[in-house]
Amino acid sequence: MTSLKGIANAFIDSKAQELFQLSDKLWKNPELAFKEFKAHELLTNFLEKEGFTVERSYTGIETAFRATFGSGRPNVCVICEYDALPEIGHACGHNLIAEAGVAAGLGLKAVLESSDAPKGMLTIMGTPAEEGGAGKVFLIENGAFVDIDISMMVHPFPSTIVQPSMIAVKQLDVTYTGKAAHAAAFPWEGVNAMDAAVMAYTSISALRQQMKPTWRVHGIITNGGAKPNIIPEKSVVSYNIRAPTSTELETLAEKVTKCFEAAATATGCQIEIREPNPMYLNLKSNPFMSDLYFKNATELGFTEMSMEAEVSASTDMGNVSHIVPSIHPCYAIGSGEVNHTREFTAVANTPEAHTATLTAAKAMAHTCIDVLTTGGMLEKIKLLKN
Ligand SMILES: [Zn+2]
Ligand SMILES: [Zn+2]
Q1: 153 with 291, same domain?
Q2: Last residue of a domain, one of 274, 291, 315
């Protein structure tokens, strides 16, 4: 291990207790997409106290932030997420993602302050609304990544995978409008919008037999009427549609849209289809950065690590990876619990999860050190078209 990596490790270890507390506070105050006010305050105050230059509400997005140290290029970026899920709290462990981003940043700052400091600067990007809302897409549109040379984040998961194959996703919200009527006295006067929602649901379920194994379609009915004695005049369904690439996703979305439209025709309802968020693109993991991360994570003691594995989830980090060389490794916490369950929420705040998070943070810091100190490495990374 080079001494720079030793400096990063020692500093992260010296801050372990504070980092645990930071993550614990996030976990105890789960906040939803674009409403991460407490997290924004907590993280920016912490980073300012640690000597970073902090820009709150970065690029005009209220709960985004940027914390920088040093100046010039290369500019290496570690990314924090901190939004939670409705009803089930930090069931995706984004409290740990924030902890890892801050920890890696602290370690790298110590390296940039050392006597052997490599040239370059460090950015910690606070990115809200990953769980729907596409926070990173808006940050990209606002220019947040124009001066970033490489970016990375880690994500807690049931297993450890350096290059998870995360796929593209789009959301479609469909509103059916029918006509209310007394459901017992004059049902023939009504146009049943809930029937349209149910027909769309079952048509999509039938379509699933003809879908590729790599495609995913899943949805909920968010409005199914007001009262059983009124023929529902309005219903709303919300669907996620996923495929390995944006092109394949458009093919699938067209098939799903036909199911939505058929249900409107069958029931005589009006239909309105909305796409509330920008599309999340598939994740493109940079292979050189992945190799460095794999090597560093192995040296730090991660075991049972796969280089690649299928993960049919999606992330707005995918969009970042299309414009900046990036990695988004997953690391194991818990004992088999899976994301978006109450069980995962529970394991996202255990001492073991914090320990794994700090190891993943060190692996990110070491990967950045390798990029900053290995001649020609950044050029090699950037040569690969993202
Ligand atoms: Zn999630
Ligand atoms: Zn997540």
Answers
A1: yes
A2: 274
Q: Based on the domain organization, do 199 and 328 belong to the same domain?
A: no
Ligand lying closest to the C-alpha of residue 79: 2
- Which residues make beta-bridge pairs with 331? 156
Q: Span 39-49, mean pLDDT? A: 98
Return the pLDDT at 384: 81
What separation in Å is there between the alpha carbon of 109 and the centre of ligand 2? 26
Q: To the nearest whole percent, how much of the chain has pLDDT over 70?
A: 99
The verdict on 184 and 249 lying in the same domain is yes
Q: Which ligand is nearest to the CA of 339?
A: 1
283: CA distance to ligand 2 center in Å? 13
* Selection from 367, 359, 321, 330 nearest residue 93 by Cα: 330
Query: Which candidate, 349, 357, 346, 352, places its Cα nearest to that of 88?
Result: 346
- Pick from 232, 246, 42, 274: which is nearest to 137 by CA? 246
Q: Which residues span the domain enclosing 353?
A: 3-166+283-383
Give me ligand 2 centre to Cα 243, in Å.
18
Please report which ligand is nearest the Cα atom of 98.
Answer: 2
| Contact residues for 324 (Cβ-Cβ < 8 A; gap 6+) | 77, 145, 148, 149, 150, 151, 386
CATH code assigned at 263: 3.30.70.360
Whole-number pLDDT of residue 1: 47
Pick the last residue of a domain from 274, 291, 306.
Answer: 274
Number of domains in the chain: 2
- For residue 273, the CA-to-ligand 2 centroid distance in Å is 26
- For residue 290, give the CATH number of its domain: 3.40.630.10
CA of 318 relative to ligand 1 center, distance in Å: 14
- Closest ligand, as measured to the CA of 240: 1
d(CA 237, CA 198) in angstroms, rounded, equals 9
CA of 241 to the centre of ligand 1 (A): 15
